[in-house]
Design brief:
Distance between the termini of chain A: 36 Å
Oligomer: homodimer
Mean pLDDT of chain A: 98
Strand order of the largest sheet of chain A: 1-2-4-3
Number of strands of chain A: 5
Largest sheet of chain A: 4 strands, antiparallel
Number of helices of chain A: 5
Helix content of chain A: 25-40%
CATH superfamily of chain A: NADH Oxidase
Number of domains of chain A: 1
Structural class of chain A: alpha+beta
Strand content of chain A: 15-25%
Chain lengths: 172, 172
């Protein structure tokens, strides 16, 4: 799929066919994610690839906006490893760029995906605690976002978000 | 250009030909940026399109890592409008996803671009003050990143950042 078309036509997909995603495709998604730029090339991202059915089914019990996980063949938890950063303030941007790459790659490969936010919720929020315990994250590894992925069983309508009011020339 | 290829082969480009970028191309870049997902679709992004030569030339005086601005035909300052957010904590992720879309689109269109970070530097940092004054940003509009864009006058080598050590299956 053409790059501009992939960017323009990507939508959040929350319903999936009952069809597994093979490891080669998963590797392509993660390779796309890791191709993102990062501050001083620190590559602060880590990826938990969740294919275990019971683990995916349990996610909605602590993350109400990730109900689709129970019907997805694949979930990817994007985390920032904040333990040894060169540019500490920038890990959120590094990981967000990686997540966006992953979403575009999924769409280009004929998959559907949706980004559900975790960080910067309160560390005591049940989503943060839930993902941390569920995936046995070490201290300092922070869950940024959970992305559910599958072969799409819905086709959200096209949407043109272009808004000229958000463009300013030279000055605000 | 194919979407996966664009994602994989995009690199930071800091040297540009002396060639203007027409408005149609600028609109394609911004349309790609605004196609990003955002928390509760809040679209917290705003874009300052800088083509004024004197303004671009002055950027390195307050932003030492944006020296290439003085040789770029175009700069885009991506800002978050934090004044009326539905999901306040998520504007950095919204704007980072938009910035990444912009970088991929630039590469796919035969341009070169580089992301230089601003947020979350100290509000008293000269880069934050510099961009805020330079572009006359209202209070509550926060500069996240400055992206310089141009027709590439350098070809950074391909880089494969895929690192299997960053992949964890089900649990860390």
């Amino acid at each position: 799929m053409d790059a501009l078309e992939a960017i323009q036509t990507r939508r959040s997909v929350r319903k999936y066919e009952k069809k597994e995603i093979n490891d080669e495709i998963v590797e392509k998604l993660l390779s796309a994610a890791m191709s993102a730029p990062s501050a001083v090339n620190q590559q602060s991202w880590e990826f938990i690839v969740i294919k275990d059915r019971e683990m995916l089914d349990a996610i909605p019990t602590f993350s109400p906006f990730a109900r689709m996980a129970a019907h997805a063949p694949l979930g990817i938890l994007i985390c920032g490893d904040t333990r040894n950063l060169i540019a500490p303030g920038f890990w959120v941007q590094d990981c967000s760029a990686a997540t966006q790459n992953l979403l575009i790659a999924a769409h280009a490969l004929g998959l559907g995906a949706v980004w559900t936010g975790v960080y910067p919720m309160d560390p005591m929020d049940r989503r943060v605690i839930g993902f941390t315990k569920h995936c046995q994250l070490p201290e300092g590894v922070v869950p940024l976002a959970f992305v559910a992925v599958g072969y799409p069983a819905e086709t959200p309508p096209k949407q043109n978000r272009f808004d000229p009011r958000r463009i300013h020339t030279n000055v605000w």
